[in-house]
TrEMBL record:
Its EC number is 6.3.4.19. This is tRNA(Ile)-lysidine synthase. GO terms for molecular function: tRNA(Ile)-lysidine synthase activity. Residues 27-195 form the tRNA(Ile)-lysidine/2-thiocytidine synthase N-terminal domain. ATP binds at S30, G31, G32, P33, D34, S35.
Length: 307
């Protein structure tokens, strides 16, 4: 195992994430080694309820979900199988369907917390993928330790300090045979390429890459704090004072203003708008007209004239 192994205290991690000592946890368990390890670790320190999502994309998926159900029955842990319909692209559609179903499941069972088994190797792969796409600080911060999943439900990832090999050892030591998703080995997916790169380049230490993502998450938090202060100082509800603002803060402020109009532009489109305003040119993005000056103003664009 690359990197230096360190002891992990899952109970302390959960408390740091805000999970009270007696609060129940919802666990997303696919049947793979990572999520089975999460189940085995968590059941000793919190009341847990497990859900397995059947995306109905592979013939084996139902049998894998039933395997998890049988394992939970032996542990005395309540378990539910959630069948979903995936729409659109396979990975993005599966992710959207999965989290929507899990959020609803948590709400039905009055579960405030949903834990997934994302670990340090996942974080390292995510960082490499986003580097290849030219992501900014927010994207390079990787997967967050927690985020709101829906009203009253928080998604948490308490295993981000664990290595995949450590989780596999938990399952191996218990004599459990996990399910293996063939999509994890499909070269058509960027994550598979990132995983192969990590395995082929010993100098790319997954734990250190994951730490870099954590450092970038701290930087993202600091930038958001600074952007909030700058927004209060620079935006008066009618115009934005852009003078001497660093590009990253300016980008975040303009994005907030556009979001108030219901627009969430792509990064390149947003930067084109900002560069036009800096050059003294009026610009339109979607349905918003932006006008330069000492204060930049934003307003709904007039409707286009029909020919």
């Amino acid at each position: 195992m690359q990197g230096q192994s360190v002891p992990h205290d899952l109970a302390a991690t959960l408390e740091a994430l805000g999970v009270g000592p007696g609060e129940p946890l919802g666990l997303a368990v696919s049947g793979g080694p990572d999520s089975l390890a999460l189940l085995m670790l968590a059941k000793h320190i919190r009341p847990v309820r497990v859900a397995t999502v059947d995306h109905r994309l592979r013939p084996e998926a139902r049998a894998e979900a039933e395997m998890v159900a049988d394992f939970c029955a032996r542990l005395g842990v309540p378990h539910d199988i959630l069948a979903v319909q995936v729409q659109g692209s396979v990975q993005a559609g599966a992710r959207e369907a999965r989290y929507s179903a899990l959020g609803d499941w948590c709400a039905r069972h009055a579960l405030r917390w949903l834990a997934t088994a994302h670990h340090a190797d996942d974080q390292a792969e995510t960082l490499l993928m986003r580097l290849s796409r030219g992501s900014g600080v927010s994207g390079l911060a990787g997967v967050r330790r927690s985020r709101a999943l829906r009203d009253g439900v928080e998604l948490i990832r308490p295993l981000l300090d664990w290595r995949k090999a450590e989780l596999e050892e938990v399952v191996r030591a218990a004599g459990i045979t996990p399910a293996l998703d063939p999509s994890n080995f499909d070269p058509a997916y960027d994550r598979t390429a990132a995983r192969s790169l990590l395995g082929a380049a010993p100098w790319l230490d997954a734990a250190r890459l994951a730490q870099s993502a954590a450092n970038l998450a701290d930087a993202e938090q600091a930038l958001e704090w600074a952007a909030e202060l700058a927004f209060v100082e620079r935006w008066d509800g009618a115009g934005l004072d852009p003078r001497e603002l660093p590009t990253e803060l300016l980008r975040r402020l303009v994005l907030r203003i556009l979001a108030a109009f219901g627009e969430t532009p792509r990064g390149p489109d947003l930067m084109r708008l900002i560069e036009a305003l800096r050059a003294g040119r009026t610009a339109t993005l979607a349905a918003i007209k932006a006008t330069p000056g000492e204060r930049w103003t934003f307003a709904p664009a007039p409707p286009r004239r029909s020919r």
